[in-house]
Amino acid sequence: MEYLAYSLMDSAYAEATRDTEFSLPEFQLKFNWNRNFKSAWLTFASIGVLLAILAQAQSASATYYGPGSNYYVRTNGSHLVVRTGPNKNYAPVAYYRNGARLPRVVGYTNGFAKLSDGYYVAANWISNRPGKGYTPGPGVGGPYTLGLGSQGSAVARLQRILGVEPTTYYGSTTANAVRNFQARNGLRVDGIAGPETLAALGF
Length: 203
Prior knowledge:
Blueprint: H1 2-17, H2 33-63, E1 72-73, E2 80-83, E3 92-96, E4 105-109, E5 112-115, E6 120-122, E7 126-127, H3 153-162, H4 172-184, H5 195-200
Antiparallel strand pairs: 1-7, 2-3, 4-5, 5-6
């Protein structure tokens, strides 16, 4: 009886552990390099464009803080040009040194922050934290040029550097002093205090 039980168990084990063959279907994979390469290229190009748009949007949102009075100049060390209107074609009237506190910002137009005194500065150079250090040079926020008819504190500073009475108005006396300085220093003699002349003056 015991022998019969062992025999049945042995045959059941043999049946259970017998090699079983499976027949899997065959797959044939065809890869079209030309079509797949174009598809991959378009995918990567689309991702690149999307990332660029997101980076620009993030940069813009980081720049425009909204109206307020706790804003400072934060540049690469240069001064920030103050203009009469909201683009680089408007005349410069003054500048703020890096780290200077700005008048109240009342709005934004065309990438420029409008200040409470009615003037404009490039919005991407203002921050709620002051910049550190100062480097003389042409400044940021568009080219800084003083010429006949310019007026303001920047003209007065230029006049003091040139040894002219600081009237805050750029008239013929100031233009002649600029011409003399340009001639002595190998600059283009035009009587206009542009970026090169101002840099040479240490403005």
